[in-house]
């Protein structure tokens, strides 16, 4: 019988992996926001006329959405790696 090994998600390296996935998601959110502003003049116009608060809400929405999605995906990947023998 094999000894039960602890999950690598709870270890310090697992936490670093999850944080890395969150940072990658945040970077992708920022890149998508920039691409959206550059490719769609209507979005840029809305942000220009919306003021500082519109820009903050736009950026925070994209960054948090992508960061949460990438973090959850990273957790799934780490758990799937643990199940492989």
Q: What does it look like?
A:
With 85 residues, the chain is mostly helical. It is built from 3 helices and no strands.
Summary keywords:
single chain; 85 residues; mainly alpha; elongated
Largest sheet: none
What ranges have pLDDT less than 50 throughout 5 or more consecutive residues? Answer: none
Helix content: over 70%
Strand content: under 5%
E-strand count: 0
SS field, number of helical segments: 3
**Overall SS class:** mainly alpha
State the end-to-end CA separation. 14 Å
Q: Which helices and strands appear, and what pairs or packs with what?
A:
Blueprint: H1 12-39, H2 41-50, H3 52-83
Helix pairs in contact: 1-2, 1-3, 2-3
Briefly say what this structure is:
It is built from 3 helices and no strands. With 85 residues, the chain is mainly alpha-helical.
